[in-house]
Amino acid sequence: MAANTKRTWSLDLRVQPSRELLFWCLNQQSCDRLLVVVRMVQGEKGGYSTPRELEELPNSLFGSGVLEKFLASAWPGTELIGHAGHIFVVKFDESVAELVLRTQPDLTKWLHAGNPPLPEDICFFNSSADVPTLVSVTHEDLFWIISEKTPELTGVRESEIRSEELYWPGKYFCRRWK
């Protein structure tokens, strides 16, 4: 396997318009998949569960565009200890980009605790790529682009984080829950 020559770029969404970013992912990077997460909620007794309305959010938003759903303890940008999150992989195209923008145009507000509640930790990638294109931890307002070239977007600066620190080997860059 060839060494990863891609670099990581931090992205400031306070200055980068979401529309431009989504269509850059779609048209310039050939992203055809969107990954979103519904996190479990810790109960008073320490256990984790997911309210039904949260767990069904991606299905109600993206409908038949949801290609796969599974539990994972790690996904691009995040690793959990002792519990899992619900991962949804969605076919990404222009109509889904428009749906995302109509639903909530500020990607930093894609949070399960938001108003309205939304799936979080948006990730865009090409289904045949070996690395994701855009990785986020939305509740911490962190967004990264993984690319060989400097992305021609506003609010981009090279990050000290190595790209391989942001995702997991395997299908959809996740570590499935066992």
Summarize the structure.
By secondary structure, the chain is α+β, with helices and mostly antiparallel strands. Helix content is 17%, strand content 31%. The protein has helices at 18-28, 52-55, 57-62, 94-103; strands spanning 7-11, 33-39, 41-42, 48-49, 66-75, 78-79, 85-91, 120-125, 134-137, 142-147, 156-158, 175-176.
N/C terminus separation: 27 Å
Order of helices and strands: EHEEEHHEEEHEEEEE
Beta percentage is 25-35%
Q: What value does the average pLDDT take?
A: 93
Instruction: Report the radius of gyration as a whole number of Å.
Output: 15 Å
Assembly category: single chain
Unreliably modeled segments: none
Task: Please specify the SSE layout and strand pairing.
Blueprint lengths: L6 E5 L6 H11 L4 E7 L1 E2 L5 E2 L2 H4 L1 H6 L3 E10 L2 E2 L5 E7 L2 H10 L16 E6 L8 E4 L4 E6 L8 E3 L16 E2 L2
Antiparallel strand pairs: 1-10, 1-11, 2-7, 2-8, 3-4, 5-6, 5-7, 5-12, 9-10
Helix pairs in contact: 1-4
Explain the overall architecture.
- The protein is α+β, with helices and mostly antiparallel strands and 178 residues long.
- It has one domain.
- Helix content is 17%, strand content 31%.
- The chain is built from four helices and twelve strands; from the N terminus they run βαβββααβββαβββββ.
- It has helices at 18-28, 52-55, 57-62, 94-103, and strands at residues 7-11, 33-39, 41-42, 48-49, 66-75, 78-79, 85-91, 120-125, 134-137, 142-147, 156-158, 175-176.
- Strands 2, 5, 6, 7, 8 and 12 form a six-stranded antiparallel beta sheet that branches. It has a four-stranded antiparallel beta sheet with strand order 9-10-1-11, with no helix packed on it.
- β5 (66-75) and β6 form a beta hairpin.
- α1 (18-28) packs antiparallel against α4 (94-103).
- The mean pLDDT is 93.
